[in-house]
Amino acid sequence: MSTISRDDVAHLARLSRLAVTDEELDRFAGQLDQVLAAVARVGEAAVADVPPMSHAVPLTNVLRADEVTPSLPRDAVLAGAPAAEDDRFRVPRILQEEA
Amino acid sequence: MTDLTRTDVAELSRLLTAGEVSAVELTRAHLDRIAADDDRLGAYLHVEGDAALAAATAVDEARATGAELGPLAGVPVALKDLVVTEGVPTTSGSKILEGWRPPYSATIATRLAEAGTVMLGKTNMDEFAMGSSTENSAYQVSRNPWDLDRIPGGSSGGSSAAVAGSLAPWAIGTDTGGSIRQPAALTGLVGHKPTYGSVSRYGLIAFSSSLDQAGPMARTVLDAALMHEVIGGHDPRDSTSIDAPLAGLADAARAGAAGDLRGVRVGVVRELGGDGHADGYDAGVLARTREAVEVLAALGAEVVEVSCPSFDLALPAYYLIAPSEASSNLARYEGVRFGLRVGDDGRHDLDEVMALTREQGFGPEVKRRIILGTYALSSGYYEAYYGQAQKVRTLITREFTAAFAGVDVLVSPTTPTVAFPLGTRVDDPIAMYAADLCTLPASLAGLPAISVPSGLSDGLPVGLQIMAPALADDRCYRVAAALEAAQDAARGHRLLDELPALAGAA
Fold first, then answer.
1. Which of B171, B323, B336, B399 could pair with B369 in a Cys bridge, judged by C-beta atoms 3.0 to 4.6 Å apart?
2. A80 to chain B: which residues are within 8 Å by CB?
3. Which residues form the domain of B281?
4. Is the pTM higher than 0.95?
Protein backbone atom coordinates (compact mmCIF):
# COMPACT_ATOMS: atom_id res chain seq x y z
CA MET A 1 0.00 0.00 0.00
CA SER A 2 1.33 3.40 -0.85
CA THR A 3 1.73 6.00 1.88
CA ILE A 4 2.11 8.95 -0.46
CA SER A 5 -0.06 9.49 -3.51
CA ARG A 6 0.58 11.39 -6.70
CA ASP A 7 -1.83 14.07 -5.43
CA ASP A 8 0.08 14.30 -2.15
CA VAL A 9 3.30 14.88 -4.06
CA ALA A 10 1.63 17.55 -6.21
CA HIS A 11 0.41 19.31 -3.06
CA LEU A 12 3.83 19.12 -1.38
CA ALA A 13 5.48 20.43 -4.55
CA ARG A 14 3.15 23.44 -4.49
CA LEU A 15 3.97 24.08 -0.84
CA SER A 16 7.67 23.83 -1.74
CA ARG A 17 7.32 26.21 -4.71
CA LEU A 18 8.39 23.59 -7.24
CA ALA A 19 6.55 23.73 -10.60
CA VAL A 20 7.06 20.01 -11.22
CA THR A 21 6.01 18.35 -14.49
CA ASP A 22 3.52 15.49 -14.84
CA GLU A 23 6.36 13.15 -15.67
CA GLU A 24 8.19 14.15 -12.48
CA LEU A 25 5.05 13.66 -10.42
CA ASP A 26 4.75 10.09 -11.71
CA ARG A 27 8.38 9.33 -11.00
CA PHE A 28 8.69 11.08 -7.64
CA ALA A 29 5.48 9.55 -6.27
CA GLY A 30 6.86 6.03 -6.76
CA GLN A 31 10.32 6.87 -5.48
CA LEU A 32 9.12 8.83 -2.47
CA ASP A 33 6.77 6.01 -1.57
CA GLN A 34 9.76 3.65 -1.42
CA VAL A 35 11.82 6.14 0.57
CA LEU A 36 8.99 6.75 3.05
CA ALA A 37 8.53 3.02 3.54
CA ALA A 38 12.23 2.77 4.39
CA VAL A 39 12.40 5.77 6.72
CA ALA A 40 9.15 4.83 8.47
CA ARG A 41 11.31 2.29 10.35
CA VAL A 42 12.07 5.06 12.85
CA GLY A 43 8.63 4.18 14.20
CA GLU A 44 10.08 0.85 15.45
CA ALA A 45 12.16 2.58 18.10
CA ALA A 46 10.88 2.50 21.68
CA VAL A 47 11.34 6.17 22.44
CA ALA A 48 8.29 7.17 24.44
CA ASP A 49 10.41 8.71 27.20
CA VAL A 50 13.32 9.80 25.06
CA PRO A 51 13.76 13.54 24.46
CA PRO A 52 14.25 14.71 20.87
CA MET A 53 17.71 15.87 19.84
CA SER A 54 17.93 18.73 17.38
CA HIS A 55 21.60 19.43 17.64
CA ALA A 56 24.89 17.80 18.62
CA VAL A 57 26.05 20.90 20.48
CA PRO A 58 23.57 22.19 23.06
CA LEU A 59 23.94 25.96 22.84
CA THR A 60 21.47 28.66 23.70
CA ASN A 61 21.45 32.36 22.98
CA VAL A 62 24.84 32.74 21.38
CA LEU A 63 25.34 36.49 21.13
CA ARG A 64 28.13 38.50 19.62
CA ALA A 65 29.49 41.64 21.18
CA ASP A 66 27.21 44.60 20.44
CA GLU A 67 29.68 46.36 18.17
CA VAL A 68 29.08 47.99 14.82
CA THR A 69 30.92 46.25 12.01
CA PRO A 70 30.74 47.02 8.30
CA SER A 71 28.16 45.19 6.20
CA LEU A 72 28.93 43.78 2.78
CA PRO A 73 29.16 46.56 0.16
CA ARG A 74 25.73 47.13 -1.40
CA ASP A 75 26.96 46.98 -4.98
CA ALA A 76 28.80 43.70 -4.40
CA VAL A 77 25.65 42.10 -3.05
CA LEU A 78 23.37 43.47 -5.78
CA ALA A 79 25.85 42.28 -8.43
CA GLY A 80 24.87 38.72 -7.55
CA ALA A 81 21.13 39.32 -7.84
CA PRO A 82 19.18 38.29 -10.93
CA ALA A 83 17.69 41.80 -11.16
CA ALA A 84 18.40 45.07 -9.36
CA GLU A 85 16.94 48.55 -9.73
CA ASP A 86 17.51 51.82 -7.85
CA ASP A 87 20.09 50.15 -5.56
CA ARG A 88 17.58 47.53 -4.48
CA PHE A 89 16.64 43.96 -5.37
CA ARG A 90 13.97 44.07 -8.07
CA VAL A 91 11.18 41.67 -7.17
CA PRO A 92 8.63 40.26 -9.65
CA ARG A 93 5.13 41.67 -9.23
CA ILE A 94 3.41 40.48 -6.10
CA LEU A 95 -0.21 41.46 -6.92
CA GLN A 96 -2.54 40.01 -9.54
CA GLU A 97 -3.57 42.61 -12.12
CA GLU A 98 -7.23 41.90 -11.36
CA ALA A 99 -6.64 42.62 -7.71
CA MET B 1 63.03 13.83 -9.74
CA THR B 2 60.07 13.43 -7.41
CA ASP B 3 56.67 13.65 -9.08
CA LEU B 4 55.37 16.72 -7.26
CA THR B 5 51.76 15.80 -8.02
CA ARG B 6 51.99 12.48 -6.15
CA THR B 7 53.83 13.82 -3.11
CA ASP B 8 52.23 14.35 0.28
CA VAL B 9 51.89 17.81 1.75
CA ALA B 10 54.29 17.28 4.66
CA GLU B 11 57.04 16.60 2.09
CA LEU B 12 55.92 19.44 -0.20
CA SER B 13 56.12 21.77 2.80
CA ARG B 14 59.71 20.62 3.44
CA LEU B 15 60.68 21.10 -0.22
CA LEU B 16 59.16 24.60 -0.29
CA THR B 17 60.72 25.68 3.00
CA ALA B 18 64.13 24.34 1.97
CA GLY B 19 63.87 26.20 -1.32
CA GLU B 20 64.19 22.98 -3.34
CA VAL B 21 60.93 23.74 -5.10
CA SER B 22 59.17 27.05 -5.72
CA ALA B 23 55.49 27.65 -5.18
CA VAL B 24 55.15 28.57 -8.84
CA GLU B 25 56.75 25.29 -9.97
CA LEU B 26 54.47 23.35 -7.68
CA THR B 27 51.34 25.21 -8.76
CA ARG B 28 52.25 24.91 -12.42
CA ALA B 29 52.84 21.17 -12.04
CA HIS B 30 49.29 20.79 -10.76
CA LEU B 31 47.75 23.10 -13.36
CA ASP B 32 49.53 21.05 -16.06
CA ARG B 33 48.09 17.82 -14.67
CA ILE B 34 44.64 19.37 -14.51
CA ALA B 35 44.95 20.47 -18.15
CA ALA B 36 46.07 16.98 -19.17
CA ASP B 37 43.78 14.75 -17.12
CA ASP B 38 40.73 16.59 -15.84
CA ASP B 39 38.70 16.06 -18.99
CA ARG B 40 38.74 12.38 -18.02
CA LEU B 41 38.40 12.76 -14.23
CA GLY B 42 35.87 15.60 -14.17
CA ALA B 43 37.15 16.71 -10.76
CA TYR B 44 36.99 20.50 -11.15
CA LEU B 45 34.03 22.75 -11.87
CA HIS B 46 36.27 25.80 -12.01
CA VAL B 47 40.05 26.16 -12.24
CA GLU B 48 41.54 29.38 -10.95
CA GLY B 49 44.77 29.16 -12.99
CA ASP B 50 45.94 32.78 -13.26
CA ALA B 51 45.00 33.65 -9.70
CA ALA B 52 46.77 30.52 -8.44
CA LEU B 53 49.98 31.42 -10.27
CA ALA B 54 49.75 34.99 -8.98
CA ALA B 55 49.31 33.76 -5.40
CA ALA B 56 52.22 31.35 -5.82
CA THR B 57 54.40 34.11 -7.23
CA ALA B 58 53.59 36.27 -4.22
CA VAL B 59 54.66 33.43 -1.89
CA ASP B 60 57.94 32.95 -3.77
CA GLU B 61 58.67 36.68 -3.70
CA ALA B 62 57.94 36.91 0.00
CA ARG B 63 60.18 33.91 0.65
CA ALA B 64 62.96 35.51 -1.43
CA THR B 65 62.89 38.60 0.78
CA GLY B 66 63.34 36.42 3.85
CA ALA B 67 59.82 36.96 5.17
CA GLU B 68 58.61 34.59 7.88
CA LEU B 69 56.16 32.27 6.13
CA GLY B 70 54.08 29.49 7.57
CA PRO B 71 55.02 25.91 6.75
CA LEU B 72 52.17 25.55 4.26
CA ALA B 73 52.87 28.72 2.26
CA GLY B 74 52.83 27.80 -1.41
CA VAL B 75 51.03 24.47 -1.05
CA PRO B 76 48.16 24.17 -3.56
CA VAL B 77 44.68 23.19 -2.38
CA ALA B 78 41.30 22.46 -3.96
CA LEU B 79 37.98 23.48 -2.39
CA LYS B 80 34.66 21.72 -2.73
CA ASP B 81 32.34 24.04 -4.62
CA LEU B 82 30.06 24.75 -1.67
CA VAL B 83 32.84 26.70 0.06
CA VAL B 84 31.99 30.31 -0.67
CA THR B 85 34.93 32.15 -2.26
CA GLU B 86 34.85 35.90 -2.90
CA GLY B 87 34.77 36.68 -6.60
CA VAL B 88 35.26 33.03 -7.57
CA PRO B 89 32.33 31.05 -9.02
CA THR B 90 30.55 28.99 -6.35
CA THR B 91 27.68 26.76 -7.43
CA SER B 92 27.26 23.98 -4.85
CA GLY B 93 26.90 21.75 -7.92
CA SER B 94 23.59 23.40 -8.79
CA LYS B 95 22.31 25.24 -11.85
CA ILE B 96 20.43 27.57 -9.53
CA LEU B 97 23.76 29.19 -8.58
CA GLU B 98 25.39 29.05 -12.01
CA GLY B 99 27.56 32.12 -12.54
CA TRP B 100 27.23 33.40 -8.96
CA ARG B 101 30.38 35.10 -7.70
CA PRO B 102 30.01 35.48 -3.95
CA PRO B 103 30.70 38.85 -2.28
CA TYR B 104 32.56 37.22 0.65
CA SER B 105 34.62 34.16 1.59
CA ALA B 106 34.01 31.28 3.98
CA THR B 107 36.07 31.34 7.17
CA ILE B 108 37.86 28.13 6.16
CA ALA B 109 38.77 29.62 2.75
CA THR B 110 40.14 32.73 4.49
CA ARG B 111 42.15 30.62 6.95
CA LEU B 112 43.64 28.52 4.15
CA ALA B 113 44.58 31.69 2.27
CA GLU B 114 46.11 33.22 5.41
CA ALA B 115 48.24 30.09 5.80
CA GLY B 116 49.62 30.89 2.35
CA THR B 117 48.03 27.97 0.53
CA VAL B 118 47.24 28.47 -3.15
CA MET B 119 43.69 27.73 -4.29
CA LEU B 120 43.72 25.74 -7.55
CA GLY B 121 39.98 25.73 -8.04
CA LYS B 122 36.59 24.43 -7.01
CA THR B 123 35.69 20.76 -7.12
CA ASN B 124 32.62 18.96 -8.38
CA MET B 125 29.99 17.61 -6.00
CA ASP B 126 26.49 16.24 -5.80
CA GLU B 127 24.07 19.14 -6.04
CA PHE B 128 23.89 20.80 -2.61
CA ALA B 129 25.90 17.80 -1.32
CA MET B 130 22.88 15.52 -1.72
CA GLY B 131 24.25 12.24 -2.94
CA SER B 132 26.85 9.55 -2.50
CA SER B 133 28.34 9.31 -6.00
CA THR B 134 28.68 12.89 -7.34
CA GLU B 135 26.35 11.81 -10.15
CA ASN B 136 23.80 14.32 -8.85
CA SER B 137 26.04 17.21 -9.95
CA ALA B 138 24.13 19.46 -12.35
CA TYR B 139 27.31 19.94 -14.36
CA GLN B 140 29.38 16.81 -14.92
CA VAL B 141 30.30 13.31 -13.87
CA SER B 142 33.44 12.78 -11.79
CA ARG B 143 35.32 9.51 -12.14
CA ASN B 144 37.30 7.31 -9.79
CA PRO B 145 41.02 7.39 -10.68
CA TRP B 146 41.25 3.68 -9.74
CA ASP B 147 38.67 2.76 -12.39
CA LEU B 148 37.23 5.44 -14.64
CA ASP B 149 33.97 3.54 -15.03
CA ARG B 150 33.28 3.82 -11.31
CA ILE B 151 32.10 6.58 -8.98
CA PRO B 152 34.63 8.52 -6.88
CA GLY B 153 32.13 8.56 -4.01
CA GLY B 154 30.17 11.59 -2.94
CA SER B 155 29.15 14.11 -2.28
CA SER B 156 32.78 15.33 -2.18
CA GLY B 157 33.64 13.24 -5.26
CA GLY B 158 35.37 16.04 -7.14
CA SER B 159 37.72 16.48 -4.19
CA SER B 160 38.44 12.74 -3.94
CA ALA B 161 39.00 12.42 -7.69
CA ALA B 162 41.32 15.45 -7.64
CA VAL B 163 43.50 14.28 -4.74
CA ALA B 164 43.67 10.59 -5.70
CA GLY B 165 44.11 11.57 -9.35
CA SER B 166 47.09 13.90 -8.65
CA LEU B 167 45.20 17.08 -9.55
CA ALA B 168 45.62 18.54 -6.04
CA PRO B 169 47.78 17.53 -3.07
CA TRP B 170 44.79 17.78 -0.76
CA ALA B 171 41.29 19.21 -0.73
CA ILE B 172 38.44 20.46 1.40
CA GLY B 173 35.42 18.20 1.59
CA THR B 174 32.23 18.50 3.58
CA ASP B 175 30.40 15.75 5.38
CA THR B 176 26.72 15.72 6.31
CA GLY B 177 26.15 11.96 6.41
CA GLY B 178 29.52 10.68 5.17
CA SER B 179 30.47 12.90 2.25
CA ILE B 180 34.13 13.24 3.30
CA ARG B 181 34.70 9.72 4.64
CA GLN B 182 32.92 7.72 1.94
CA PRO B 183 34.64 9.31 -1.10
CA ALA B 184 37.99 9.16 0.73
CA ALA B 185 37.47 5.44 1.40
CA LEU B 186 36.51 4.71 -2.21
CA THR B 187 39.59 6.44 -3.65
CA GLY B 188 42.30 5.34 -1.20
CA LEU B 189 42.51 8.65 0.69
CA VAL B 190 42.32 9.78 4.28
CA GLY B 191 39.21 11.82 5.08
CA HIS B 192 38.24 13.24 8.46
CA LYS B 193 34.89 14.59 9.59
CA PRO B 194 35.64 16.81 12.58
CA THR B 195 33.58 17.05 15.74
CA TYR B 196 30.45 19.04 14.91
CA GLY B 197 31.15 22.67 15.79
CA SER B 198 34.93 22.41 15.65
CA VAL B 199 35.27 23.74 12.09
CA SER B 200 33.42 26.91 11.12
CA ARG B 201 30.40 26.59 8.86
CA TYR B 202 30.43 30.32 8.05
CA GLY B 203 30.35 30.55 4.27
CA LEU B 204 29.56 26.90 3.62
CA ILE B 205 26.42 26.57 1.52
CA ALA B 206 24.02 24.84 3.90
CA PHE B 207 22.43 21.45 3.32
CA SER B 208 21.51 20.17 6.80
CA SER B 209 22.79 22.68 9.33
CA SER B 210 22.78 20.41 12.40
CA LEU B 211 24.99 17.89 10.56
CA ASP B 212 27.20 19.74 8.04
CA GLN B 213 30.94 19.85 8.81
CA ALA B 214 33.91 20.66 6.59
CA GLY B 215 37.13 18.70 6.85
CA PRO B 216 40.31 17.52 5.16
CA MET B 217 40.74 14.98 2.36
CA ALA B 218 44.38 14.06 1.96
CA ARG B 219 46.91 11.39 0.98
CA THR B 220 48.16 10.79 4.52
CA VAL B 221 46.83 11.00 8.05
CA LEU B 222 49.43 13.63 8.93
CA ASP B 223 48.37 15.82 5.99
CA ALA B 224 44.74 15.60 7.08
CA ALA B 225 45.71 16.66 10.60
CA LEU B 226 47.78 19.57 9.26
CA MET B 227 44.84 20.87 7.24
CA HIS B 228 42.42 20.39 10.13
CA GLU B 229 44.67 22.54 12.34
CA VAL B 230 44.55 25.33 9.74
CA ILE B 231 40.78 25.37 9.22
CA GLY B 232 39.61 24.42 12.72
CA GLY B 233 38.96 26.37 15.90
CA HIS B 234 36.44 28.86 17.15
CA ASP B 235 34.79 31.31 14.78
CA PRO B 236 32.49 33.98 16.22
CA ARG B 237 30.71 34.11 12.84
CA ASP B 238 29.31 30.59 13.35
CA SER B 239 26.97 30.46 16.35
CA THR B 240 27.45 26.67 16.63
CA SER B 241 31.24 26.98 16.69
CA ILE B 242 32.78 25.44 19.82
CA ASP B 243 34.96 27.85 21.79
CA ALA B 244 37.67 25.35 22.75
CA PRO B 245 41.19 24.85 21.45
CA LEU B 246 41.88 21.95 19.09
CA ALA B 247 43.78 19.09 20.65
CA GLY B 248 47.21 18.64 19.03
CA LEU B 249 46.14 16.87 15.87
CA ALA B 250 49.39 16.70 13.89
CA ASP B 251 51.17 15.68 17.07
CA ALA B 252 48.64 12.89 17.53
CA ALA B 253 49.26 11.71 13.94
CA ARG B 254 53.02 11.70 14.52
CA ALA B 255 52.60 9.86 17.82
CA GLY B 256 50.37 7.27 16.18
CA ALA B 257 52.87 6.66 13.39
CA ALA B 258 55.38 5.60 16.03
CA GLY B 259 53.25 2.46 16.22
CA ASP B 260 52.56 2.01 19.92
CA LEU B 261 48.87 1.54 20.69
CA ARG B 262 49.30 -0.05 24.11
CA GLY B 263 46.56 1.13 26.45
CA VAL B 264 44.21 2.08 23.59
CA ARG B 265 40.85 0.30 23.79
CA VAL B 266 39.24 -0.30 20.38
CA GLY B 267 35.56 -1.28 20.05
CA VAL B 268 34.40 -3.02 16.88
CA VAL B 269 30.76 -2.11 16.21
CA ARG B 270 28.76 -5.29 15.63
CA GLU B 271 25.87 -3.51 13.90
CA LEU B 272 28.21 -2.17 11.18
CA GLY B 273 29.22 -5.33 9.32
CA GLY B 274 29.58 -7.69 12.30
CA ASP B 275 27.88 -11.01 13.03
CA GLY B 276 24.25 -10.94 11.93
CA HIS B 277 24.74 -7.51 10.33
CA ALA B 278 26.80 -8.37 7.26
CA ASP B 279 24.03 -8.23 4.64
CA GLY B 280 24.92 -5.82 1.88
CA TYR B 281 28.62 -5.74 2.78
CA ASP B 282 31.31 -6.93 0.33
CA ALA B 283 33.27 -9.92 1.65
CA GLY B 284 36.46 -8.09 0.68
CA VAL B 285 35.48 -5.03 2.71
CA LEU B 286 34.82 -7.15 5.80
CA ALA B 287 38.11 -9.03 5.30
CA ARG B 288 40.15 -5.79 5.06
CA THR B 289 38.35 -4.51 8.17
CA ARG B 290 39.21 -7.66 10.15
CA GLU B 291 42.83 -7.44 9.03
CA ALA B 292 43.05 -3.78 9.98
CA VAL B 293 41.69 -4.54 13.45
CA GLU B 294 44.29 -7.32 13.75
CA VAL B 295 47.00 -4.77 12.91
CA LEU B 296 45.72 -2.46 15.67
CA ALA B 297 45.77 -5.39 18.10
CA ALA B 298 49.32 -6.29 17.05
CA LEU B 299 50.33 -2.70 17.86
CA GLY B 300 49.10 -3.21 21.40
CA ALA B 301 45.49 -2.07 21.25
CA GLU B 302 42.93 -3.93 23.32
CA VAL B 303 40.09 -4.98 21.00
CA VAL B 304 36.53 -5.77 22.08
CA GLU B 305 33.23 -6.07 20.25
CA VAL B 306 30.63 -3.42 21.06
CA SER B 307 26.92 -3.54 20.32
CA CYS B 308 24.95 -0.39 19.46
CA PRO B 309 21.51 -1.69 18.40
CA SER B 310 20.00 1.69 17.51
CA PHE B 311 22.64 2.22 14.80
CA ASP B 312 20.32 0.09 12.63
CA LEU B 313 17.96 3.07 12.66
CA ALA B 314 20.57 5.68 11.75
CA LEU B 315 19.76 5.51 8.05
CA PRO B 316 16.00 6.09 8.38
CA ALA B 317 16.58 8.82 10.99
CA TYR B 318 19.14 10.58 8.82
CA TYR B 319 16.97 10.48 5.71
CA LEU B 320 14.24 12.26 7.65
CA ILE B 321 16.35 14.81 9.51
CA ALA B 322 18.59 15.85 6.61
CA PRO B 323 15.78 16.36 4.06
CA SER B 324 13.72 18.22 6.68
CA GLU B 325 16.53 20.67 7.35
CA ALA B 326 17.27 20.88 3.62
CA SER B 327 13.69 21.77 2.74
CA SER B 328 14.01 24.72 5.08
CA ASN B 329 17.57 25.73 4.11
CA LEU B 330 16.85 25.63 0.38
CA ALA B 331 13.90 28.01 0.75
CA ARG B 332 16.48 30.78 0.32
CA TYR B 333 16.70 30.01 -3.41
CA GLU B 334 13.75 32.20 -4.33
CA GLY B 335 15.19 33.87 -7.43
CA VAL B 336 15.46 37.32 -5.84
CA ARG B 337 18.75 37.83 -4.02
CA PHE B 338 21.16 35.63 -5.97
CA GLY B 339 21.31 32.98 -8.64
CA LEU B 340 18.80 31.98 -11.26
CA ARG B 341 15.46 33.68 -12.04
CA VAL B 342 13.02 32.12 -14.50
CA GLY B 343 9.75 33.48 -15.92
CA ASP B 344 10.10 37.12 -14.85
CA ASP B 345 8.24 38.41 -17.92
CA GLY B 346 5.63 40.62 -16.30
CA ARG B 347 2.95 37.93 -16.65
CA HIS B 348 4.12 35.72 -13.77
CA ASP B 349 3.93 36.92 -10.19
CA LEU B 350 6.54 36.37 -7.48
CA ASP B 351 5.10 33.05 -6.38
CA GLU B 352 5.07 31.70 -9.93
CA VAL B 353 8.56 33.01 -10.68
CA MET B 354 9.78 31.30 -7.54
CA ALA B 355 8.24 27.95 -8.52
CA LEU B 356 9.50 28.17 -12.11
CA THR B 357 12.98 29.15 -10.94
CA ARG B 358 13.23 26.31 -8.45
CA GLU B 359 11.78 23.83 -10.95
CA GLN B 360 14.44 24.68 -13.52
CA GLY B 361 17.29 25.32 -11.10
CA PHE B 362 17.10 22.19 -8.94
CA GLY B 363 17.84 18.62 -10.06
CA PRO B 364 15.76 15.52 -9.26
CA GLU B 365 17.46 14.47 -6.00
CA VAL B 366 17.20 17.98 -4.56
CA LYS B 367 13.51 18.10 -5.47
CA ARG B 368 12.90 14.66 -3.95
CA ARG B 369 14.53 15.72 -0.69
CA ILE B 370 12.71 19.06 -0.51
CA ILE B 371 9.39 17.25 -1.01
CA LEU B 372 10.28 14.53 1.50
CA GLY B 373 11.39 17.11 4.06
CA THR B 374 8.28 19.19 3.55
CA TYR B 375 6.21 16.06 4.13
CA ALA B 376 8.11 15.04 7.27
CA LEU B 377 7.65 18.51 8.75
CA SER B 378 3.97 18.93 7.85
CA SER B 379 1.35 18.86 10.56
CA GLY B 380 -0.09 15.39 11.06
CA TYR B 381 3.17 13.71 10.08
CA TYR B 382 5.69 15.72 12.11
CA GLU B 383 5.58 13.55 15.24
CA ALA B 384 5.65 10.23 13.35
CA TYR B 385 8.54 11.19 11.13
CA TYR B 386 10.68 14.18 12.10
CA GLY B 387 9.92 14.02 15.83
CA GLN B 388 10.54 10.28 15.95
CA ALA B 389 13.80 10.67 14.00
CA GLN B 390 15.00 13.25 16.53
CA LYS B 391 14.37 10.80 19.35
CA VAL B 392 16.27 8.07 17.50
CA ARG B 393 19.09 10.59 17.25
CA THR B 394 19.11 10.81 21.03
CA LEU B 395 19.21 6.99 21.30
CA ILE B 396 22.17 6.77 18.94
CA THR B 397 24.02 9.46 20.87
CA ARG B 398 23.33 7.67 24.18
CA GLU B 399 24.68 4.40 22.76
CA PHE B 400 27.86 6.16 21.68
CA THR B 401 28.22 7.62 25.17
CA ALA B 402 27.74 4.19 26.74
CA ALA B 403 30.22 2.61 24.33
CA PHE B 404 32.86 5.26 25.01
CA ALA B 405 32.65 4.49 28.72
CA GLY B 406 34.38 1.22 27.86
CA VAL B 407 36.52 2.00 24.80
CA ASP B 408 38.55 4.92 23.46
CA VAL B 409 37.54 4.59 19.80
CA LEU B 410 35.00 2.65 17.77
CA VAL B 411 35.81 1.15 14.39
CA SER B 412 33.87 -0.17 11.39
CA PRO B 413 34.18 -0.31 7.64
CA THR B 414 33.72 3.19 6.19
CA THR B 415 31.46 1.88 3.43
CA PRO B 416 29.65 -1.45 2.92
CA THR B 417 31.07 -1.88 -0.60
CA VAL B 418 33.87 -0.68 -2.83
CA ALA B 419 33.17 2.00 -5.46
CA PHE B 420 30.24 0.95 -7.63
CA PRO B 421 29.98 1.45 -11.41
CA LEU B 422 28.65 4.78 -12.66
CA GLY B 423 24.94 4.79 -13.38
CA THR B 424 24.00 1.74 -11.31
CA ARG B 425 22.20 3.50 -8.46
CA VAL B 426 21.11 6.85 -9.92
CA ASP B 427 17.44 5.94 -10.22
CA ASP B 428 17.30 3.92 -7.02
CA PRO B 429 17.47 6.35 -4.07
CA ILE B 430 17.36 3.57 -1.46
CA ALA B 431 20.36 1.76 -2.96
CA MET B 432 22.23 5.08 -3.18
CA TYR B 433 21.45 5.94 0.45
CA ALA B 434 22.85 2.57 1.59
CA ALA B 435 26.34 3.79 0.69
CA ASP B 436 26.18 5.96 3.84
CA LEU B 437 25.15 3.15 6.19
CA CYS B 438 28.33 3.14 8.29
CA THR B 439 29.03 6.86 8.36
CA LEU B 440 25.60 8.08 9.49
CA PRO B 441 25.72 7.24 13.24
CA ALA B 442 28.71 9.51 13.95
CA SER B 443 27.10 12.26 11.84
CA LEU B 444 23.89 12.17 13.85
CA ALA B 445 25.79 12.26 17.14
CA GLY B 446 28.13 15.04 15.95
CA LEU B 447 31.21 12.94 16.65
CA PRO B 448 34.59 12.99 14.92
CA ALA B 449 35.29 10.12 12.52
CA ILE B 450 38.11 9.43 10.10
CA SER B 451 38.45 7.07 7.15
CA VAL B 452 41.90 5.62 6.54
CA PRO B 453 42.81 3.13 3.79
CA SER B 454 42.81 -0.51 4.92
CA GLY B 455 43.74 -2.17 1.62
CA LEU B 456 42.18 -3.21 -1.68
CA SER B 457 39.29 -5.47 -2.59
CA ASP B 458 39.04 -6.47 -6.25
CA GLY B 459 41.69 -3.84 -6.97
CA LEU B 460 39.63 -1.05 -5.40
CA PRO B 461 40.32 0.81 -2.14
CA VAL B 462 38.64 -0.01 1.17
CA GLY B 463 38.56 2.32 4.17
CA LEU B 464 38.47 1.74 7.92
CA GLN B 465 36.36 4.20 9.91
CA ILE B 466 37.57 5.28 13.35
CA MET B 467 35.09 7.18 15.53
CA ALA B 468 35.85 9.03 18.78
CA PRO B 469 34.05 11.07 21.45
CA ALA B 470 33.28 14.74 20.81
CA LEU B 471 36.43 16.90 20.68
CA ALA B 472 38.67 13.80 20.78
CA ASP B 473 39.55 14.13 17.10
CA ASP B 474 43.17 13.51 18.11
CA ARG B 475 42.29 9.87 18.86
CA CYS B 476 41.08 9.41 15.27
CA TYR B 477 44.37 10.75 13.94
CA ARG B 478 46.49 8.71 16.35
CA VAL B 479 44.88 5.34 15.62
CA ALA B 480 44.58 6.02 11.88
CA ALA B 481 48.25 6.99 11.66
CA ALA B 482 49.25 3.82 13.49
CA LEU B 483 47.36 1.66 10.98
CA GLU B 484 48.69 3.65 8.03
CA ALA B 485 52.31 3.41 9.19
CA ALA B 486 52.09 -0.31 9.94
CA GLN B 487 50.45 -1.13 6.60
CA ASP B 488 52.78 1.13 4.60
CA ALA B 489 55.77 -0.55 6.26
CA ALA B 490 54.39 -4.04 5.62
CA ARG B 491 53.72 -3.41 1.94
CA GLY B 492 56.77 -1.22 1.40
CA HIS B 493 54.84 1.71 -0.05
CA ARG B 494 51.63 3.72 0.30
CA LEU B 495 48.36 2.21 -0.91
CA LEU B 496 48.01 5.16 -3.32
CA ASP B 497 51.26 4.10 -5.02
CA GLU B 498 49.34 1.10 -6.37
CA LEU B 499 47.02 3.41 -8.27
CA PRO B 500 47.53 2.72 -11.97
CA ALA B 501 48.81 5.70 -13.95
CA LEU B 502 45.87 7.40 -15.59
CA ALA B 503 47.24 7.04 -19.11
CA GLY B 504 47.13 3.26 -18.70
CA ALA B 505 43.66 3.25 -17.23
CA ALA B 506 42.00 5.34 -19.90
1. B323
2. 100-103, 337-339
3. 4-311+394-505
4. yes
